[in-house]
Amino acid sequence: MSILFIINDAPYGTEKAYNALRLANQVKKDSPDTEVRIFLMADAVTCAIPNQKTPDGYYNIERFLKGLLAKGCPVKLCGTCIDARGLTDMRFVEGAARSNLAELSSWVTSSEKVLTF
User: Fold this and answer.
1) Can you give the pTM of this predicted structure?
2) Partners of 38 in the beta sheet?
3) Burial of 94 (0-12, 13-18, 19+ CB in 10 A)
4) Which of 44, 86, 101, 115 would be a feasible disulfide site paired with 7, CB 3.0-4.6 Å?
5) Domain count of the fold of the chain
């Protein structure tokens, strides 16, 4: 089984990114052999900015991404979205990689399920 999670919202302000990554993490926990891929688009590219400080007791998107990366889940960021937000020279969470629409298209067509948040 392969599942692609496409996330469009910023890491904080709504809980869409949080819920997407929570579900991705649970899928890997329940079904370790399931291939889980994460593609960050639009404001979601800011989910991969490292060293974000959140209040004590508040969820931290960076920790979710690092945990998924450690479990072998690729995390890709839309290059056009990175550039549009002036983040071209930004260093992102280790393991997260700049990507493009062609790779997203390939992931969509090769995934058994595509979930968008």
Assistant:
1) 0.95
2) 5, 75
3) exposed
4) 44
5) 1
CA distance 73 to 38: 7
Q: Any idea what the CATH number is for the domain that residue 17 is in?
A: 3.40.1260.10
SS3 of residue 21 by DSSP? helix
Instruction: For residue 32, count other CB atoms closer than 10 A to its CB.
Output: 10
Q: What is the pLDDT along the chain (117 residues), one digit of tens a residue?
A: 999 999 999 999 999 999 999 999 999 999 999 999 999 999 999 999 999 999 988 999 999 999 999 999 999 999 999 999 999 999 999 999 999 999 999 999 999 999 999
Residue type, 85: R
Question: The domain containing residue 70 runs over which residues?
Answer: 2-116
Q: Which of 78, 108, 98 is nearest to 5 (CA)?
A: 108
